[in-house]
Amino acid sequence: MISQSQAISWNELADSVLNGGTVDDVTAHAILDCPNEELLGLLQAAFRVRHQYFGNQVQLYYLKNAKSGLCPEDCGYCSQSKVSDAPIEKYAWLNEEKLLAGARQAKENQAKTYCIVASGRGPTNREVEHVAKVAKRIKEEIGMHLCCCLGLLKPEQAQVLADAGVDRINHNLNTSRELYDKICTTHTYQDRIDTLKVAQAAGMELCSGIIVGMGETHDDLIRVTNELRELNVKSIPVNFLTSIEGTPLENVSELDPQQCLKALCLFRFTNPSTELRIAGGREIHLRTLQPLGLYPANSMFVSDYLTTKGQTPSEDYQIIKDLGFEVVTQGFESEKPTELV
């Protein structure tokens, strides 16, 4: 452990983490406050940790917005919420065949994980049965790793999804407990924690992350990364706020590429063996430094997000190829990587 009185050596920090050490709050602050002239050294140290667990492999995720808009919640960042005037497409649940078509597109895009996402506070039992039916067919006909993000879940709903073959539940914390009620008032931070625990109790893996850039302090970022470690999440998506016109946070823009990279390094050092994903907003905020995001992170979304456009899959593949990395479509390291075309 590096103490407050010592100058931070990023390679020593990597050594400590790789030997089982944890990152205290003082060191976490030092990562986020890293001088820009030391950023390449910080990234190299973070890459040592990433490489230990994931080598040069990258996992791709593909999102399908199964139900768009029509949400009664007031999350300030979201174009689908009841307080948003964003001009988005709104529709009720996609049918079985459209969700299956999305899974086939995910596989064509070399994604390992297909993510079914639905707006709303939480699903009805009928909606859960619909997803369960689709999940069984995806497993039988396509054979993909499957993640669902459906809002707040009840124990019996989580069990139906687990029994249908859903591998993982996504439910992001988004920000810290201390800041949460400034971002959303229609449900609580604890509601989100409870859903994660319900999913975990049903035997599914947890995917949970953050949106950086909503007015949080460094302390908020550190609290979230520590909470995710304690929850033993398997995948952490790090989103960077996309300030969507028509949402309460439409005028919030406080990020630069260096800040984003430091945040990714924080999450890598504090959750060394956890899959770390550069997610929404990477194109906007990392800009030309996007490739550097894959030094601490080991996964990314391919193609579009829920209501915002991403860059083309070919551009994503080119980043990965230019780095000398490889896409993995099955398990990490033990499986033969996919050849990029």
Task: Please provide a written account of the structure.
The chain has 341 residues and is of the alpha/beta class. 39% of the residues lie in helices and 13% in strands. The chain contains twelve helices and ten strands. Strands 1, 2, 3, 4, 5, 6, 7, 8, 9 and 10 form a ten-stranded parallel sheet that branches. α6 crosses α8. It is globular and about 55 Å long. 47% of the residues are buried. The N terminus and C terminus are likely disordered.
The proportion of residues forming helix, as a percent range, comes to 25-40%
Strand content: 5-15%
Spans with pLDDT under 50 lasting ≥5 residues? Answer: 1-6, 332-341
Order of secondary-structure elements = HHHEHEHEHEHHEEHEHEHEHE
Q: Which structural category fits the helices and strands?
A: alpha/beta
- Main pleated sheet: 10 strands, parallel
Quick check: average pLDDT?
Answer: 91
Distance between the termini: 43 Å
In total, the number of strands is 10
* Anisotropy-based shape: globular
Name its key features.
disordered N terminus; 12 helices; 341 residues
Provide the fold topology.
Blueprint (H helix, E strand, L loop, with lengths): L9 H9 L6 H8 L6 H16 L2 E11 L28 H13 L4 E6 L6 H17 L3 E5 L5 H10 L3 E3 L9 H4 L5 H13 L3 E3 L2 E3 L5 H14 L3 E6 L16 H14 L4 E4 L3 H4 L13 E3 L11 H10 L3 E2 L14
Parallel strand pairs: 1-2, 1-9, 1-10, 2-3, 3-4, 4-5, 6-7, 7-8, 8-9
